Amino acid sequence: MPFRHTAAHLALLSAMTMTTTLAASAAHAATPTAYVTSETAGVGVIDLDQMTLTRTIPLGKDGPRGLSLNADGTRLYVANKGTADLSEIDTSTGTVLRRAKIGKNPEFVRVFKGYAYVTYEPGEDGGPPGPPGQPPKEEKDDENSPPAEIAIVDLKSLKVIHSVKSGHETEGVEFSSDGREVLVTNEGDDTVSVYRVGTGKPVRTVKLDKGSRPRGIKASPDGKQYVVTLENTNKFIVLDARDLKIVKTVDTKTGPYGVAFGPHGKRLFVAAARDKTLQVFDGKTYEHVSDVPVGQRCWHFSFTPDGAKLLLACGRSNAVYVLDAENYQTIKQIEGLPLAWGIVTYPSASGSIESK
Fold this sequence. Notes:
The chain is mainly beta. The protein has one helix at 7-30, and strands at residues 33-38, 42-47, 52-57, 64-69, 75-80, 85-90, 95-101, 106-112, 115-120, 149-154, 159-165, 170-175, 181-186, 191-196, 202-207, 214-219, 225-230, 235-240, 246-251, 256-261, 267-272, 277-282, 288-293, 298-303, 309-314, 319-324, 330-335, 340-346.
């Protein structure tokens, strides 16, 4: 005899489904998590309560690099060099749901107001540096090669709605405090370019010292300044957000890249990757405070959501270094992440890729 759903049965089923969904969401929200791209293994998932690698989402053949989360942490977006696309991952299951074709050598990703901004480089081969002991590959700063582009992806359809020509070797991505502009650093032609959010309409381009190779960029907590790291001249500069004029230049150790303010804005952190050092500066005066020894090729880093620890993705150490955020001492190394590239957390925290 066929079973007939009564109104009471349907109401009960609906309530059970809603309860299950809410429980799953609550469980997700209750577990602070870090996601780390490994260029040869995939995306590592770190339980931040236990500080352990719980699983690796197998995207190694795709060559994952840049990554960014949506607001509620249910979707992770990853730029893949090997497949020249952006993958959308369900963070609860680790399943790739959709892919958006981007173009050659996609690298940096930022999710903002319903869009993903993905930098890619049609004229560059990209990829990690050579093995230790070997000279780095010669940089190809050919002004006649195609410039980098920024793909603007609508996250509802996961379709590229605009592709904006930028400078050569576009790297870091940041947003203005009013949410109207997106700023990018261009390594190959030593510029910072500014575009309108959503449309990609060019606003202005700022030229920096030739050969300086700007890489990381981060807005100050009050939105009044931007800090830009210059990899080849071993400095960072501070730009006034109103006119993008340089107001301060600060020396760093060798090869500065990732940059971020701490959770309360009191400190600025710079990853001097070639010197295996995380540098600490005063977040207001930019005076040097401390140098912290870390692993090899630590490009990107993130605080934990509670601000108690700092995690660095150290590519040539094949690990994530975990530091105490108060005394900067190394607590542990989380192994099993070959060529670790980028790192973000949920809930969102201050870091060189995402901003809280």
